# Entry
Amino acid sequence: MVRFFSVDIHLVELSIPLYLIGFAFGQLSGSPISDNYGRKWIGIISMTVFLCASVAILFAQSIEQLWMLRFIQAFGGGFGLVICAAIVRDLYDALIPI
# Structure
């Protein structure tokens, strides 16, 4: 990636914290939105965002595009993670003894 983008290694490494920040924002915003609008379609949309960003990363031509797409990818992934956990909790809440 360093050779392809012709940048310093530290700029490529910056994609990791950007991913983690995007993942955190996705989790924080995913729960209230899925509570208001339903889990199924929001989950499908979030996984579609994740998939599209993952494919678009293959065609990134600059390090800035890579950063942006990694953030979007993580946002969709964080959204999906929190929605999946909520769906499981909704379906199997009655089976778990308190």
